[in-house]
Amino acid sequence: MTLYGEKVPPADDRPTVQVTAVSWPGDDPEAGVPGRPAGGGARRRIRMLLAGGITAAVLASVGGVGAYAYAGDVPRGTTVLGAELGGRSRADAARELRAELDRRAAELAAPVPVRVGERTAELNPAEVGLAVDVDATVAAAAEARAHAVDRLVGERSVPPVVTVDIARLDAALAKVVGDQGRKMTMPAITFSGTTPKAVHPKPSLALDPERSAEAVRQGWLSGQPVTVPLVETHPATTAEEVDRMVAELAKPAVAAPVKLSTDKGSVTIGPRAIAKSLRFTADKAGTLTPQVDVKRLRAALGDDLTKIEVPPKDARMAISGGRPKVVDNGRPGQQLDGAALARDLLAVLPKADGREVTGELKPAEPELTATKVAELGIKEKVSSFTTRFTGGLSSPRSQNIVTIAKDVDGTVVLPGETFSLNGHTGERGYAQGYRDAPVILDGKLVPGVGGGTSQFTTTLFNATYYAGLEDVEHKPHSYWFSRYPAVIESTIFWPNLDFKFRNNTPYGLLIDTSYTSSSITVSIWSTKIYDSVKTEYSPRRNITKPKTIYLKPGPSCIPANGIDGFTQDAYRVIRKDGKVVKREKFTWRYDAEPRYICGAEPS
């Protein structure tokens, strides 16, 4: 390039200054032109020197102000909560900010007023983990160095970086929400016989933990009440989409049978079997997805599948001579490819014609072999629980208890596996050997198939409870019955109420059941982990008295003496190596069971 006529090598990296030309008073741009006075060139040289000098002075001034403004790590004029941090190193700024926080300790510890919906409350900052992150705040203040040109002078207040324990905050705010919120109604399609029933989704109204935390972080030191939003969340599947699934899949699915063909023969899958196996499942986001449950399909087809399938048989354990032993080594079988059958059957269910699928039979190994069972660590009794009943073994209720006990006896639950009582037994109806006995329906005792199975459920629940196993799902009765321990008991009802526990140990476990003419016992065999599992009760509170209700006499009327209602807490206390390793709280409120009298009310 050329500068003032001098050749400069391209590699020259000396700095250059670009000066914009300015017009000075008395400038004569046409000097040197014929007819104009001479001397213009000299004046231009003088002006160029002046311009260069002013530019140098301006740059020197800018450099000086910049050096002043950015002395230290934090630019001068920077404050946080009124504390001057500017011109300091990060370490000095952090010390100054901590000193300011100490001076404001009472202010920072003061309760924080919050509003959630229509309710107000106060939060204790320490209980929800509200704090100023000093190091992060100083880092944010120091980041201003990146904006040197814009902030050479003046003052700047940097907001503090606030931290909060989101889980603890959410738990505290949930108490404020109370009954203002509502749970999401998930979309669903169920079958009553072969008639599909649509459940339309409804949005939830609840706290969003992240948004709650952001609102509290921003509003904590503002001196004003903090408004925490309740957020409405809609399920992913809409009501219109549910109706479309009913019209396009659920109704056509049960309109006609499907023929299942294999190399060993064919089976007709009737509408009832289809209805029992076609499931519409919603995930946490409310996305409804149809699928064929092959396990339910097998149960619905029953003996029809025995013509073409040979199910594998698991190895079995039983208690013999007071010790768990393998009593059956099991055997392999031959079964339909379940994944392919579910896929192909789902594809033809919407169709009116061509309702036929081809099933492929594959070798099926048992889930539990004798070798695997022997390696599970099932060697000793871990817990046992007994409840008592009346009426001997001849009563329908007692027979139901024995029937479900026999079904569960000998079940092996693998490490990490969740056991579902409904999933294990399937539907408990007349075809499965259950009989009519009293059940609670709409708040009163009425005859119902399977009555008494709740007593077995309570016995099994307590056996797993005292084994220290993880409670996944259970629901106590509406009324308390003296034959059950308060709070730690469970009802069951097909298909809506289930009992589930998880084997949260590294060992397998064996469920052993036994009975007498007046009692049912469930024992858990595995490898003992804990020293002891015990229950501590709180006093009963909120006592309510039963009212008297007169019912029309007849076979469906079952009298009751009435039972007080109350609320109580039960604490599961688990000890290991002489120390309490877990203290788990269970709480339940029992309604007062009315005194039912089969007869007309006295006038």
UniProtKB/TrEMBL annotation:
Keyword line: Membrane, Transmembrane, Transmembrane helix
Residues covered by the YoaR-like putative peptidoglycan binding domain: 239-357
Transmembrane as UniProt keyword: yes
Transferase in keyword set: no
Membrane spanning residue stretches: 49-71
Alphabetical list of PANTHER family matching this protein: EXPORTED PROTEIN (PTHR35788:SF1), EXPORTED PROTEIN-RELATED (PTHR35788)
Official protein name in the record: Vancomycin resistance protein YoaR, contains peptidoglycan-binding and VanW domains
Organism: Micromonospora echinaurantiaca
